[in-house]
Write a structure and sequence with these properties.
Elements lengths: L2 H12 L10 H7 L2 E6 L2 E7 H7 L2 E7 L2 H10 L5 E2 L5 E3 L2 H5 L1 H10 L4 E8 L2 H8 L10
Antiparallel strand pairs: 1-2, 3-5, 3-6, 4-5
């Protein structure tokens, strides 16, 4: 039996509380029901896993054969997109993320159908870095 399975069994069947400290945030989210985020000795956040999922940023990434035409079509439809360095358009507004099929419809009607369309969720490690103010960049000490 793996340690993860044992810990889950202890919490479910025997009501045991397990306090775990780890830098492997994806593993923590699979095991925990409630998470506390500590940085430099301070508790920054304590929340349920469901709340954590809601706090993570989401964005819609898309590619098309003519990115500039796609960007202009989206802007005209009130869906502003930002061009990323890797040749992808990013839409971060909630309506685009919630309804990517609407974005695809706008592009198809404009004659620039998407060749790639995916909703990307912020990784837990990036969420932590954003929370502590590092924004995913290495900071000099």
């Amino acid at each position: 039996m793996e340690i993860r399975e044992l810990l889950l069994e202890l919490t479910r069947e025997q009501g045991v509380t397990v306090f775990m400290s780890s830098h492997i945030l994806a593993e923590v989210s699979r095991l925990a029901q409630r998470i506390g985020i500590i940085h430099e000795g301070r508790l920054l956040q304590e929340l349920e896993v469901d709340e954590l999922e809601k706090n993570r940023q989401r964005r819609l990434l898309l590619r098309a054969r003519d990115l500039e035409a796609a960007r202009l079509a989206l802007a005209a439809a009130g869906q502003p997109a930002r061009m990323l360095a890797n040749g992808t358009l990013e839409l971060a507004n909630a309506s685009s993320v919630a309804c990517p099929d609407d974005v695809a419809r706008v592009l198809v009607q404009a004659g620039v159908p998407p060749t790639h369309l995916v909703v990307e969720e912020e990784e837990l490690e990036r969420y932590f870095l954003r929370l502590v103010g590092m924004n995913g960049e290495t900071q000099d000490e």
